[in-house]
Amino acid sequence: MTMSGFDPFAQLGLERRFDLDLEVVERTHRELSRALHPDKFSGGTPAERRAAIERASAVNEAWRTVRDPVSRAEALFRLAGVPVGEVNEPKTAPAFLMEIMEMREELAEARGARDLARVEKLAAGVRAREARVTASLASALASGAEPAAALPMLGELRFYKRFLEEVSAIEDEAMEHDGAV
Amino acid sequence: MTALFEIFDPKAAPKPIGIDLGTTNSLVAWVDANGKPMVARDCDDVSLVPSVVHYRADGGVVVGRGAQLLASEHPRETIVSAKRYVGRGADDDAVKGLGPYDLLPRADDGPNVVRFKVHGRAVTPMEVSAEILRSLKRLAEDELRAVGGVVITVPAYFDEAQRQATKDAGRLAGLDVLRLLNEPTAAALAYGLDKRASGTFAVYDLGGGTFDVSILHLDDGVFQVKSTGGDTALGGDDMDRAIAEELFVAMGFADASARPAAIVRLVLDESRKIKHALTTSDVAGADLPHAGGAVSRVEISRERFDALIAPLLARTGVTCRRALKDAGVKPEQLDGVILVGGATRVPAVRAYVAKLFGREPLADIDPEEVVALGAAVQANQLAGSVVTDEVLLLDVIPLSLGIEVGGGVVDKILPRNTATPASARATYTTQEDNQTGFVVHVVQGERELAADCRSLATFTLGGIPPMPAGLARLEITFRVDENGMLGVHAVEATTGLEQTVTVEPSFGLDDDTVEQMLIDALDHGEDDLDARKLAEQRVEGRRILAATRRAMADSPDLLDASERAAVEAVAAKLEKAIEGTDAARITLYIDDLDAATKPFAARRMNEAVAAALRGRDVTSVEVEVAHAKGIENAHADG
After folding, report:
1. What range does the domain containing B159 cover?
2. B316-319, long-range: CB < 8 A, 24+ apart
3. Neighbouring C-beta atoms of residue B137, cutoff 10 Å
4. Residues A31 and A101 placed together within one structural domain of the fold
5. B83 is known as an active-site residue
6. What is the pLDDT of residues B549-606, one digit of tens each?
């Protein structure tokens, strides 16, 4: 199976849409994992055991893709025939680029000052923006309009995701310095 | 039918066993006739077999308590805590200060593994582990007629090399290793089955030499490992060492390089006893020889001990917080904390865990037996041919897996805590014109540079025709199976050249070496090995025949008449081969039957998926109905 042909939604028997009920996604993953679990086939033929492991890996990959908003959006674009990735997407708008740079600078300062409260405040702001863009992207993708027009929102989501990963790394760093209870 | 009878006769059925192969102690357990898991005990009613192996000058081997008694007298010939060396490289600095052993340097063309020099010969940690496993097998055989498949537990944090070495040790001990199971998962399994609980749990496992924490989610019979974390070099042994350092100073041996090996062993033994005594007493001590030769008592208070181990506990705290964060769980969302490992008997550890997670930890099951009991439960399930409503375990990858790309940077292909079995692909291209090969360097770890990660394997995909940079397309697929073992497949898309490696880690032994060890271990060499191969292939052939017929009876509609005839024809050939004495012939028809049933197996899998999805839809309707009822009830109450 090549990446371009992989349909994570079909793997999980889910509708191809962005605003999925994540609880249903989790439940589906659990049910399929149960049905395909290698232990269920420990008495089966080798072909069956192999088929079960392959299918279970595909289900896990589909689950990984679908539960994360960025990779879920990427899969939807890809399945709609819109190529994704840095080279295929429109350049980031200069105004947003400026904003990004300022936010990153502020985060770097807070990190240097070991000011966790400020880091958390920045993260909360980004989470709010992320939620807004997620909602807009959902309605854009559900509207039936040309999906390529919604690509800048994917770029924005990616940035927020990276930013929050950096926040998480800073929190890890803080934990390293603070082992005692 | 005779063949089937032989396989399923309960009297003849060998008993599946679970083994906790620990750093300090090991145990073996099984599920008794009443379905209750129990650990094997020796004639003195002791279940713990010290993971200590003594090599006698005459070539004999002593395992367990007997070996432990010889340790202070023969420190270099008695291997203690071999698990700390399993799967480690000879050039790994971290293993050098771990014990009073003579470690052999890596031979120029030899595999990169730790080798102890014992009586002039080389012994690998894997062989030491195999001796322990053999001894546990004998302990089980004393009570059971025959030992069947085995589940061996490993720390969740064990990497590929360490898992492979553990599996090889099982093979070398003559065991049929059904599965490697993560220790915390085994513990949760023992608890889950006893309590039928559902919820989110933390398993805090502080053993002799390793620390593990896992966050597990149990829902409707499915255990899902949400995250794991740990340290392969932190445990009760470190507490002993902390006490020992204190004793050495009091004894006048402050200079570590001037300590006689026998004294080191004696002090470590006394330190362990002091640690145990401090579980119930406020002060404990030992009579020890001082540097000048005089013997006098040295004492340590519990207060001092608690202070000595505080830094060790703080390290476990950091790991626990990260695991909680990875799982997206706050301490107050946990439904329970399970204690595993002998070191969790230390009162300061229990107090620390209670504070860290904000609740008293569970310790209903003996923390030293719980892992073996869980392994026995799992072995029993795996060996059963009838599927019952067993608890299923969904595991994750403990450390990120990736490959080295330009500039020595790691490209993570499967990040840590990805659910297994897992697969993922990444595509790369050539960086130079006319590049005819790719070197694929597989690494494991969280660091950004390959040099800081664990190197697992390196292979080359060559023979690519010269073309400009950026044109070749190398697609790399990582697959991690249900045992956490990694397979890597590389294909160059424009030419279709491909190569697959099952990761035979650079820190391990290759298959031929293990095979040779297996031959050496048998008294009669190759003849016995052939006889054993034939017996194994016959059992495997019969098992596959039975499974194929069962599957065809279960889903008769998924095969058309011609496919059915083809399968029957191969099955008949396999049946005939089993009656013969040619193992290779049996293998051949097993492979043929495998190929003949492949489309059938895929269809069966589609059915299983469709059935599960139908089940999900039913469940979601049920949830809605329950919800609606809840609203009605609320109205009725009002």
Report:
1. 2-194+371-386
2. B316/B204, B316/B206, B316/B211, B316/B213, B316/B231, B316/B234, B316/B352, B317/A179, B317/A180, B317/A181, B317/B352, B317/B356, B318/A175, B318/A176, B318/A179, B319/B211, B319/B213, B319/B229, B319/B230, B319/B231
3. 18
4. no
5. yes
6. 989 998 899 999 999 999 999 999 999 999 998 988 999 999 999 999 999 999 998 8
Q: Do residue A60 and residue A99 come from a single domain?
A: no
Q: What is the pLDDT of residues B443-470, one digit of tens each?
A: 888 788 888 888 888 888 887 788 887 7
Give the best residue of A45, A164, A176 to mutate against chain B (max B CB count within 10 A).
A45
CA B21 to chain centre: 9
Q: Is the CB of residue B393 less than 8 Å from the CB of residue B189?
A: yes
Return the CATH number at A117: 1.20.1280.20
Subunit contact B355:A64, Cβ cutoff 8 A = no
pLDDT in tens, A7-54: 999 999 999 999 999 989 988 998 898 888 877 787 788 888 889 888
Amino acid present at A27? R
Judge whether B6 counts as a catalytic residue: no
Last residue of a domain, one of B386, B421, B442: B386
Statement to judge: residues B492 and B528 lie in one domain: no
Q: Is the same domain home to B101 and B134? A: yes
> Closest by alpha carbon to B84, among B170, B152, B21, B133?
B21
**ipTM of model over 0.90:** no
Instruction: Say yes or no: A118 contacts chain B, CB-CB below 8 A.
Output: no
| B579: its two tokens | 């009656």
Q: What angle do CA B386, B388, B394 make, to 5 degrees?
A: 110
Q: Are B528 and B638 found together in one domain?
A: yes
Domain that holds residue A146: 94-176
In this prediction, residues B77-81 reach a mean pLDDT of 90
- Where residue B189 sits, what CATH number does that domain have? 3.30.420.40
| Total of domains in chain A | 2
A87 touches chain B (CB under 8 A): no
User: Annotated catalytic residue: which of B15, B77, B83, B246?
Assistant: B83
Give the gap in angstroms from C-alpha B594 to the nearest C-alpha of chain A: 6
Q: What is the CATH number of the domain that holds B262?
A: 3.90.640.10
In a domain, B586, yes or no: yes
d(CA B401, CA B412) in angstroms, rounded, equals 6
Instruction: Tell which of B7, B178, B181, B318 to mutate to test the A interface (max A CBs under 10 Å).
Output: B318
Q: In the annotation, is B9 catalytic?
A: no
Of the candidates B205, B240, B246, B395, the residue annotated as catalytic is B205
- Same domain for B585 and B549: yes
Whether residues B16 and B156 fall in one domain: yes
B548 neighbourhood in chain A, CB within 8 Å? 45
Contact B601 A168 (CB under 8 A): no
Q: Say yes or no for a CB contact (<8 Å) between B605 and A43.
A: no
Chain B CB contacts of A175 under 8 Å are: 318, 321-322
Residues A60 and A9 in one domain: yes
Q: Is the bond preceding residue A90 a cis peptide, omega within 30 degrees?
A: no
Q: Is B44 one of the catalytic residues?
A: no
Pick from B382, B392, B548: which is nearest to A34 by CB?
Answer: B392
Within-domain flag for B215 = no
Q: Are B484 and B531 in a shared domain?
A: no
Based on the fold, state whether residues A104 and A161 are members of the same structural domain.
yes
Which residue type sits at B172?
L
Banded model confidence at residue B511, pLDDT cuts 50, 70, 90:
low
Find the residue in B nearest to A180 (Cα).
Answer: B314
A99 and A60 housed in the same domain: no
Residue among B160, B183, B231, B369 flagged as catalytic: B183
Whether A36 sits inside 8 A of B608 (CB atoms) is yes
Residues B163 and B269 in one domain: no
